[in-house]
Amino acid sequence: MGFDGHPSKYQWERYIQQGDYVLLLLQTAIDLCDDDDKSDVVRYKNMIGVQDKAYQFLVLYVLKRWLGKRLFSYGRGKTTENR
């Protein structure tokens, strides 16, 4: 984590890059194993899961990074609703 408790830009980019490698590996396994449809379905579900986790991470990253700065006003936990 970065100094503010959020992932740094480097950590975010590394996470996405690693996810791309996993997707490439799964796609390669699907392409090489044409005779096993049940395993291909599992691999596709795994691909969807990897992409879903990356999306969830992105949403959390954005919410914490940008919206969090707007929701907490004085740095002492007071929200904008408590003003």
Instruction: Report on the biggest sheet.
Output: none
What's the mean pLDDT score?
A: 77
Strand content: under 5%
Q: Give the beta-strand count.
A: 0
Structural class: mainly alpha
End-to-end span in angstroms?
30 Å
| Low-pLDDT runs | 78-83
Shape summary: elongated
Count of discrete alpha- or pi-helical segments spanning 4 or more residues: 2
- Series of secondary-structure elements, N-terminal to C-terminal: HH
Helix proportion range: over 70%
Rg calculated over all Cα atoms: 19 Å
Task: Please explain how this structure is put together.
The protein has 83 residues and is mostly helical. 71% of the residues lie in helices and 0% in strands. The chain has 2 helices and no strands. Helix 1 runs antiparallel to helix 2. It starts with 8 loop residues before the first helix and ends in a 12-residue tail after the last helix. Residues 78-83 have low confidence and may be disordered.
In brief, what are we looking at here?
By secondary structure, the chain is mainly alpha-helical. It is 71% helix and 0% strand. It has 2 helices and no strands.
Characteristic key phrases:
disordered C terminus, 83 residues, 71% helix
Present the secondary structure layout.
Blueprint lengths: L8 H24 L4 H35 L12
Helix pairs in contact: 1-2
